[in-house]
Amino acid sequence: MGDWEYTVNSLVPEGERLPNGHARYGAVISYDGSGFHGFQRQKHSVSVQEELEGALSYVAGSDIKVSPAGRTDSGVHACYQVVHFDSPVSRSASNWIRGANSRLPETISLTWAKELPCEFHARFAALSRTYRYIISRTETRPSILPKGLAWVRYHIDVEAMALGCRYLLGERDFSCFRGSDCQSVSPFRHVREATFYKAQDLVIFEIKANAFLLRMVRNIVGALLEIGRGKKKPEWIQLLLTEGDRSKSAATASARGLYLVDVHYPNKYGLPRPKKGPFFLNENLRL
Fold first, then answer.
1. β-strand pairing of 77-87 with 258-264
2. CB proximity list for 117: less than 8 A, separation 6 or greater
3. How many CB atoms lie within 10 A of CB 85?
4. pLDDT tens-digit series, residues 252-278
5. 132 neighbors 206 (Cβ within 8 angstroms)
6. What single DSSP character describes residue 180?
7. What are phi and psi of 108, to 5 degrees?
8. Pairing state of beta strands 202-209 and 128-136?
9. What is the pLDDT of residues 201-227, one digit of tens each?
C-alpha cells in the first residue's frame, strides 16, 4: 500500500463528518502516558482523550470531541500525536493552545493548532506513523525517567536485532504480533522502515508504517529482544511472520519505552514537521 489521499465521503464514518456551522481544527499534542489508560476515553479510568476534550470544551464554551491519528495503548507516550476536532465557535491558534494548556495536567501539552479544510481527518488522512522504543542498557535501573524508558539488565546484541528488522519490511500479515483483542479488520500492514540506533547507554528501535495493529510495536520489540539475548536467530522473525501464530512469539515488551514520534500527512494540510523525539535524544544516533 503506497501513499494515498482519501475521499472523505467514502472512508470517513458518518458520525465523524463536519457538522453544519462548525469549523474543523487540527492539533498536535504530546503526553507522558504513564498516568493514563491509553488515549481513548474509558468508562472507569482516566484517559488522554478525556483530559483533552475537557480542556478544549472549556476554551470553546461548548462540548468538543476529538479524533486521534492513533489510539495509543495504556502507558504509551507521544511526542507527536495529531487530533482533529470540530468547533461551533472560532478561536485563534493561540487561544486554543494557551487556553487548553491552562486546563490540562502537566503531563499533556497542546503544542500546535490550526483551522484545516473540512475533509481533514487525523486518522484517515495520515500517510504513515512512526514509533520509537527506547531501551536503557545500564547495570542498575534508571531513576531518571523510570516510566519513560524500558530497562534491560542483560547484554543485548543490537546488530543481530537490526538484522531481524529486515524481515519486517514490506506489506505483510502481522498476525503474529497482533494483540488478542485487536479489532482491526485486516492484519496486513506496510512497514516502510525498521532499524536500531545507539545513543550512549540507550538503544532506540524506530519503526514506520502506514498503520499499526494493537500492541504490534511492543510485540515486535519483545521478539527482537529474544534475538538480542541470543535465544533466537534473526531469521526467527521471518518464521513468525510466515506461521502467523501469536502464541509462538515472545512476550509483549513494556509500554514504558514506547513513543509515538511522528504522523505524516500530505503537505497541503501544512502540519508542522518537527524533529523526532523524545526530547532527551540528540541527533547523534548511530547503529
1. parallel
2. 24, 269
3. 22
4. 999 999 999 999 999 999 999 888 999
5. yes
6. T
7. -130, 135
8. antiparallel
9. 999 999 999 999 999 999 999 999 999
Measured at the alpha carbon of residue 233, what is the angle toward residues 173 and 248, in degrees to the nearest 5? Answer: 50
Nearest to 241, CA basis, from 164, 162, 173, 179:
173
Domain coordinates in residue numbering, the chain: 19-125, 128-260
Q: What is the pLDDT of residue 15?
A: 55
Any idea which architecture 128-260 has in CATH?
2-Layer Sandwich (3.30)
Q: Let me know how long the chain is.
A: 287
Q: Mark whether 73 is an active-site residue.
A: yes
Shared fold status for 19-125 and 128-260: yes
Neighbours of 230 (CB within 10 A): 12
CB neighbours of residue 227 within 10 Å: 24
pTM of the predicted model over 0.85: yes
Specify the CATH architecture of the domain 19-125: 2-Layer Sandwich (3.30)
Report the run of H or E that residue 93 belongs to, with start and end.
Answer: helix 93-103
Judging by beta carbons within 10 Å of its beta carbon (0-12, 13-18, 19+), is residue 171 exposed, middle or buried? middle
Residue (of 28, 190, 219) closest to 109 by Cα position? 28
**CA–CA dist 6, 24 (Å, integer):** 17
> Using CA atoms, how far apart are residues 132 and 170, in angstroms rounded to an integer?
18
Catalytic option among 3, 32, 63, 73: 73
